[in-house]
Here is the input.
Amino acid sequence: MRRLLPVVLGALVLASAASAATAPRVDFAKLPGLQNGAPPWGNDSQTLDSRLPHLGLHALLQEQLAFHVHQHLDLWVNGRKVAIPAEVGLDRFSFQPFITELHTHDGTGILHVESAQRRPYTLGQFFGEWGVRLSARCVGRYCGQLHWWVNGKERSGDPSRLVLVDHQEIAVALGRKPARVPHAYAWPAGY
Here is the structure.
């Protein structure tokens, strides 16, 4: 059993690295219709369909639940909390309404990955469909010192590359850090 543990842990590390390597990389410079104003930012469903081909997401007629996980996102820009809007990744107003594999239902900050297949989805895909640029230095039109955490542990690098897994508490702050970085989220029953 002792010999198996390093092999299993090594396999988990390799699987995680492989997921990150195969996860879509979002080129925000190619995304049409990014929001350039100050927060709060709307769900930007009006231009969502034009960004989907660049994000590796699809316009679905209904949710697919073969792969179903949730994350919670908190966001601050220059010391101010930014609301994560309801219905990011949903278009209810076009001729053919649709939902993507990665979306929000309400304004709680809960992200839903609901897909017909198990594959990596990233925080960059979520920000891309929201129409808000995210990089190692920028959120929307604001650039500077960017801090980000997963489950209360500070990370470095580009948060848009973060592969989304179940029950992550993700916090992103551009500029001043929040007084308290969340370590966990109180998930409602059924999540």
Notes: Residues 1-19 have pLDDT under 50 and may be disordered. Residues 106 and 155 are 27 Å apart (CA to CA). The two ends are 33 Å apart (CA to CA).
